[in-house]
User: Which sequence fits this backbone?
């Protein structure tokens, strides 16, 4: 018997997960990367974070200032990469704090010293792509888009999959039969063709992609949840709760669902890596996010088009591989942690 | 008698967990030794370790097997390389398992499986092996063995499957048979037959048998000597008569003493009836093969025409083998499956829709067989036991509910003093008997008048079974509960029931007061049941 404090099964699973060093380290690294990418504007931006100019403070990162503010001639927003502006800000008494990487995802450096695509240098740490955009900035923002997209797609898939699976498994019979036939028909629709058609009809956007991929993404999980519900609904604890007069809603939510979450949780990292891969593949084919959005798939495509610019394909490949590997390690550790055969350890 | 196997200081450990602690025993040629203990006592692991069949375990000690064929040398089974062990398994030492359905390969006919052993071990040709297999099956008393040899395991009945497995084990005439709970998965009337068969075969072949069991009746009928295991230690060993008449170790005494004791109110029932059933019938829809099945469904009648009444303070025992419809009867009494005929609980009938039944649900509660599946592993003790109050008295303040839960737990013998932080614990921290107490507390907290007990003790060890039955008897006396007790165990019926219903294949064969039905059974089947339990 354990000490006075009793651990719930999920807490014990978490402890087993923590004991898997590779998986836990992957989780820590992944979460750190995601949190950092959420602050990408501070890390990689073409605007200074803070400017001190002739006695007053300016915050270019949150507000646009016309170039006239800093002694220029134009009323257009200031281009802080312009050597004239840099010079103005470097004068006696003036200063500016730049982000570690002074480029945004769409920044074109009109004053670059090398032709595009430029190899890695002091000016661009990872080089530039064939349009002259900084590669590091692209990767940081592209990673953020990919991960957020993966998270959103996974979350929607899980919610829809769990609800539909729960309804099928719990009620069984005709409900189950009807749903299963619907899934068979729905699942046999050619997903890729639909995506091509829709991307031709509608203006491509991340939201549209999310909706289209979600329409098909819930089915796999739904089957697992259905199987779990079918199994668990005839367990004695469910029967005992029925005999107590517990209603259907509470039975599903409180009794069966918590005992049916193992496949859902186990698949989370794998589903996420699949979502990221799907987005990358669609971008690579040009069916994904609208042009101009930083995207790993588009970078891969550029890498393919510019084989001599090795820095594009290698760095993008590295980012993708590391992301997917981290997710896979987490998934492995999670699967081991939730393995019922190891539940006693 | 010549020594066959001498086990010395056998230890088995899984990682840091030692499950068998230095066990010593010996078996002579042709001797029947029974290894007795409760679940988790390490008796099965001991047997498996002899054959090198426990995976991921560290096995220490020695097990010297004499006269190994062909040269007749003596080997230490625990030191033998895997290749040589392969030769001994199924040849010098064979094993039969508890569950014949999973121990036989479903994709091969039983004849094939017996013949395979003979081909491997005795280098017979296919045809010779097949003929020998048919003979081996015939020796186990399978009717029409020539035809049955072509059957797949699922085409045989449970008893026939166990016979086929015995035929397989004995095919190469082993000198030692390890029988791991060979009759536990079988119905009681079959157990006697299989045991008789093993006894006959043992006499004919002169092999030694190591019988692993928790059932003392079996030991008394079958074995020459008995070894008692507790928590991985061998606590007592001796001739069966000597151990049963004069057990030396306290644990052995407890085991022998574990037969349930009758301690219930006797006398005619005066109290009002809590449940009445007249011509109660339960049927399940089953698919019909062929085109007709597209439009209609067949019906399987699980219970046909049961009549009974249960007065307060009394127990109605329903006894029968698996498939007799007794568990279906329990579900019908709980209003969990639709039924025909009349079934009244405190003069109210079950309605079709759930919400209308809530008042009756309070009156009838249930305790299931398996304490491991009857408690949700992800709810705390407080949530599990308090749930009934949440449903039936939703307005109750949290503190009151907590107090009621605590009082109810104390009533079934679970207190905070024993288990600090009891209410916040999860079921996995409790043993089988304690879980069954939790299940009883969950049922009682809503104040029912009738408790349906579906095999409440058959998943428990004998010593625990006695305690739980004692608790149920006390609760009946104190609270005036009526019980509908479903069981296959005549001993439990004898200890608990006032009236008995004997069921077979959905039909009620016999019913009446317990003394009459068990004392002077009118039906052959009842006689067989009573005889098997004696």
Assistant:
């Amino acid at each position: 018997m354990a000490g006075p404090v009793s651990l719930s099964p999920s807490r014990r699973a978490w402890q087993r997960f923590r004991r898997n060093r590779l998986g836990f380290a992957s989780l820590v690294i992944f979460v750190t990367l995601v949190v950092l990418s959420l602050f990408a504007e501070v890390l990689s931006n073409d605007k200074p974070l803070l400017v001190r100019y002739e006695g007053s403070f300016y915050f270019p990162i949150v507000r646009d200032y016309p170039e006239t503010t800093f002694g220029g001639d134009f009323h257009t927003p200031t281009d802080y990469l312009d050597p004239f502006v840099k010079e103005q800000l470097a004068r006696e008494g003036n200063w500016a704090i730049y982000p570690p990487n002074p480029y945004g995802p769409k920044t074109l450096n009109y004053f670059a010293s090398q032709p595009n695509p430029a190899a890695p240098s002091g000016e661009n740490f990872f080089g530039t792509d064939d349009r002259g955009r900084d590669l590091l900035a692209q990767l940081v923002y592209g990673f953020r888009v990919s991960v957020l997209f993966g998270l959103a797609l996974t979350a929607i898939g899980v919610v829809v999959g769990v609800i539909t699976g729960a309804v099928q498994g719990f009620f069984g019979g005709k409900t189950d039969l009807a749903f299963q036939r619907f899934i068979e028909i729905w699942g046999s629709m050619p997903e890729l063709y639909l995506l091509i058609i829709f991307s031709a009809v509608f203006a491509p956007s991340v939201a549209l992609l999310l909706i289209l991929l979600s329409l098909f993404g819930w089915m796999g999980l739904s089957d697992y949840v259905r199987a779990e519900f079918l199994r668990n609904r005839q367990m004695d604890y469910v029967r005992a709760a029925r005999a107590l007069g517990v209603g259907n809603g509470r039975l599903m939510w409180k009794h069966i669902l918590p005992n049916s979450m193992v496949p859902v949780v186990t698949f989370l990292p794998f589903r996420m890596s699949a979502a990221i891969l799907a987005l990358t593949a669609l971008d690579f084919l040009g069916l994904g996010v609208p042009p101009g959005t930083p995207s790993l798939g588009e970078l891969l495509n550029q890498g393919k088009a510019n084989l001599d610019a090795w820095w594009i394909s290698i760095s993008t490949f590295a980012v993708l591989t590391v992301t997917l590997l981290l997710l896979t390690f987490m998934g492995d550790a999670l699967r081991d942690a939730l393995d019922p055969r190891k539940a006693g350890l | 008698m010549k020594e066959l196997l001498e086990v010395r200081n056998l230890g088995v450990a899984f990682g840091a967990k030692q499950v068998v602690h230095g066990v010593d025993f010996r078996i002579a040629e042709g001797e029947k030794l029974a290894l007795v203990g409760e679940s988790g006592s390490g008796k099965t692991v001991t047997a498996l370790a002899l054959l090198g069949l426990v995976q991921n375990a560290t096995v220490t000690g020695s097990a010297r097997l004499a006269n190994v064929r062909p040269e007749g040398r003596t080997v230490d089974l625990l030191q033998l390389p895997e290749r040589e062990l392969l030769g001994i398994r199924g040849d010098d030492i064979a094993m039969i398992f508890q569950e014949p359905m999973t121990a036989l390969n479903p994709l091969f006919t039983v004849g094939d499986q017996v013949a395979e052993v003979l081909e491997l071990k005795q280098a017979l040709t296919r045809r010779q092996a097949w003929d020998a297999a048919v003979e081996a099956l015939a020796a186990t008393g399978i009717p029409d063995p020539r035809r049955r040899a072509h059957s797949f395991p699922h085409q045989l009945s449970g008893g026939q499957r166990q016979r086929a497995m015995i035929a397989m084990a004995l095919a190469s005439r082993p000198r030692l048979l390890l029988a791991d709970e060979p009759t536990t998965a079988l119905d009681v009337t079959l157990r006697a037959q299989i045991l008789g068969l093993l006894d006959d075969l043992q006499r004919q072949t002169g092999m030694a048998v190591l019988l692993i069991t928790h059932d003392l009746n079996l030991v008394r009928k079958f074995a020459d000597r008995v070894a008692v295991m507790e928590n991985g230690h061998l606590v007592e060993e001796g001739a069966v008569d000597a151990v049963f008449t004069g057990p030396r170790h306290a644990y052995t005494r407890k085991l022998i003493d574990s037969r349930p004791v009758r301690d219930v109110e006797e006398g005619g029932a005066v109290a009002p009836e809590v449940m009445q059933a007249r011509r109660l019938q339960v049927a399940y829809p089953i698919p019909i093969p062929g085109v007709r099945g597209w439009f209609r469904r067949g019906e399987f009648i699980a219970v046909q025409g049961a009549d009974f009444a249960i007065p307060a303070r009394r127990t109605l025992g329903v006894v029968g083998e698996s498939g007799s419809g007794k568990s279906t009867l329990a579900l019908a009494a709980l209003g969990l499956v639709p039924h025909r005929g009349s079934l009244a609980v405190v003069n109210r009938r079950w309605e079709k829709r759930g919400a209308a039944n809530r008042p009756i649900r309070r009156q009838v509660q249930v305790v299931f067989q398996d304490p491991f599946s009857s408690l949700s592993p992800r709810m705390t003790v407080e949530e599990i036991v308090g749930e009934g109050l949440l449903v039936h008295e939703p307005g109750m303040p949290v503190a009151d509910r907590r107090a009621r839960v605590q009082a109810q737990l104390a009533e079934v013998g679970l207190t905070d003093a024993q288990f600090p932080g009891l209410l916040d614990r999860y079921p996995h921290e409790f043993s089988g008997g304690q879980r069954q107490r939790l299940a009883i507390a969950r049922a009682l907290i809503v104040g029912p008048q009738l408790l349906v007990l579906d095999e409440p003790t058959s998943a428990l060890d004998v010593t625990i079974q006695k305690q739980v039955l004692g608790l149920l008897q006390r609760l009946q006396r104190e609270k005036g509960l009526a019980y509908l007790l479903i069981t296959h165990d005549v001993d439990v019926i004898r200890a608990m029931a006032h009236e008995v219903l004997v069921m077979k294949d959905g039909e009620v064969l016999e019913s009446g007061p317990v003394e009459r039905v068990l004392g002077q059974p009118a039906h052959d089947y009842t006689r067989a049941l009573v005889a098997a339990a004696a």
